[in-house]
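Researcher: Let's walk through a ligand-bound prediction step by step. First, I give you the protein sequence. Second, the SMILES string for pyridoxal-5'-phosphate. Third, you return the three-dimensional complex as structure tokens. Ready?
Model: Ready.
Researcher: Here are steps one and two:
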Amino acid sequence: DEATAAAESMTLARRVWQGEDDAVFLVDKSLHPQIKAVIETRAKPLKIKIIEIEAKLEDITALSEPIFGGIFAQISSLGEIRDLAPLFSLIHERSALAIIACDLLALTIYKTPSDYSADIAIGSAQRFGVPMGFGGPHAGFMAVRSGLERSLPGRLVGQSLDSHGNRALRLALQTREQHIRRDKATSNICTAQVLLAVMSAFYAMWHGPKGLTKIANEVRDKTNSLRNALASNGYSVTSGEIFDTFTITDIEAEKVSQNMFDAGFNVRIIDDKTIGLTFDESITVSDLENISQVFKATAVKDLPAKVNEAFARNSEFLQHPLFNSYHSETSMLRYLRNLADRDLALDRTMIPLGSCTMKLNATTEMIPVTWTEFSNLHPFAPSEQSVGIRKLISQLSEWLIEITGYDAVSLQPNAGSQGEFAGLLAIRNYLDSRNEHHRNICLIPSSAHGTNAASAVMAGMQVVVIACDEQGNVSVADLKEKIAQYKESLAALMVTYPSTHGVFEEAITQICGLIHDAGGQVYVDGANLNALVGLAKPGKFGADVSHLNLHKTFCIPHGGGGPGVGPVIAKAHLAPFLPNHPLDVTAGPTTGPGPVSSAPFGSASILPISWTYIRMMGGEGLTKATQVAILSANYLAAKLDPHFPVLYRGAHGYIAHECIIDLRDITKNTGVSVDDVAKRLMDHGFHAPTVSFPVTGTLMIEPTESEDLNEMERFINAMVSIRAEIADIEAGEITIEESPLRFAPHTSSDLMRNDWNRKYSREVGAFPSEVNSDLGARGKYWPTVGRIDGVYGDRNLVCSCLPISELAIN
Ligand SMILES: Cc1ncc(COP(=O)(O)O)c(C=O)c1O
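Model: Step three, the predicted complex:
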């Protein structure tokens, strides 16, 4: 979200800084309070010193400390538009990065971050068509000048070429992702806010540059006309250039706020004598008249003056055809349909992605998200106006506590990774409260999810890796050794249960005991809770804190990479250190470390999904779901094992809710890679399983309880058919280079080519399996992109829209 984008911009600036270690980060006093607070939460464990400062040249010149970066708002929290160019050149003189917090709608009429020579721009895309939803989910954004793109945190969508030489979009720079770089990763971001980013993009396509400019001017005109009316009626209001916000001062704030409330409006109380008003395009002329009446002011007839030249934008934007083509409802509908048809989503097929728990997102669970009572609530609306959602939040919290055996929970983190950070921060602050500041080692098994190590570093800890034994379990021998070695400085163990190897580690209670005996805390990564609900409680087998992934176990759809909710849930002794929020005392303990998200309750508007799921299932239903998830995974493992060996099993030969199949011998003997198998599955109409995590050269498959026997049989048949194609290579009947496995996925244009000279027929390419002969009848999924050249894409990083000149056929 916006505040975490701001915090990530700080850490990006720190990463590229080559000067003194003790350089400081400047934070504009006029940033929104929640943004400042999240920056502080993130800065503290990294020992980054923050200086809050006015956006004044003399204040910056007066600073004697080295500076590695500074973040300033183009529009102050109180509404003034500022010219940041002179300030940014002072920051650049210090070789530091200049970061601008900006507003997408305002940017359509005001100067751009690059006009100010900003290095990084951050903000929220919420006002591009995304409901407020009591604070989220919303997509934050972060843009950088060229030269910094490889330092961006998280995942970039980049452009590469497919095997037919066509341009194709893909996730770029995967090699620097957490799974490879672990504690050296650029950030812990995994699940983000993809769906919200996509929604905002569609909003921009629908309105186009002209429509957006019109909306911005409308917002500005309405805001300015009211401000001017109040000014001409003697009120002290913000002077100068304003966009959508201004303040009224020298009034009795509480009383005026009550009058405004009686007239149907919420205002921001800034202090005893000042209130702030902010508008969007939904404000009507009659609303403005009603507000004028509250202030007993008469309207001013003249339209507000044009944007002051000093602040005005004079460059074009969104010129790409995508933003200038779909302005009728029919064309937009068809465009969306066209995109959806390319998507191999859960409504077509099982998505067997291990560690992702791609389960049914039932319509009944989804409907409440659209209800205005949830979607139209402002995150800082008075508590008496948000009774319903608050009740839902507290019930959901109680249920999660009951399910996990913990004592306290915060729903604020916007993803599992953010929950990890919050949980480790709770451990950090708990240890600090006991004067155990020296404890800073976090033990993490080699099989752990990449976010674990990255989060530990963000929480100011050092990572020590624990080996796994041949069964994929944490090596208790190695753990004992590391505990002995780091006994004095041990802060925590971060362990996933059931393990990322898909096995219930029998030693888990012993492992927790060993850590506690050595004075450390146990963090159980709860992303795999789908294998535990109703059967076992982490809070009872020895863990101190966990995060859960509501976007896995509790049915929030993954949205192509987010939104998610990653509650952090803990035993009583860590409860005082869970996240809180400066603008809502009910959001967490007063002793908390500050917020980890912009909004007090994070992505509140999608919580009804998990609430509804739990409410409909009840305790018995949830337990049954877990049992079926485990049974299904074991069924798949048993059926696949004769064809592809299952890598890890528990002591009794069973797995938990997912299984890893090992292709390494096959790859060694035939050259068939996990990519070949994953892509061939697309020809069968299946989404690929998780590839090469946590063990390179393997596939991790998680069916979940949502897949019926028919769908699992279809998957098994596809895998058996792929195994037969591998056998043809083993038998020397075809080489891997000639095999349909290597040419997969088969696009329709590939199959239509005149020069088809493959060693297999077109039918085999498109309809690979006789046993799945109803593939056509079911509505064959046609892959639209051939095999993508990952290396080319990483070498030639393109992660913005192509210029029109590149798209023109002439
Ligand atoms: C075991 C494990 N831990 C942590 C995470 C991170 O969760 P999120 O993607 O919500 O940040 C994941 C996500 O895939 C996971 O599988």
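Researcher: And what stands out?
Model: Residues 190-191, 355-356, 415-417, 449, 451, 496, 500, 525, 527, 549, 564, 566 surround pyridoxal-5'-phosphate (CB under 6 Å). DSSP finds 25 helices and 22 strands in the chain.
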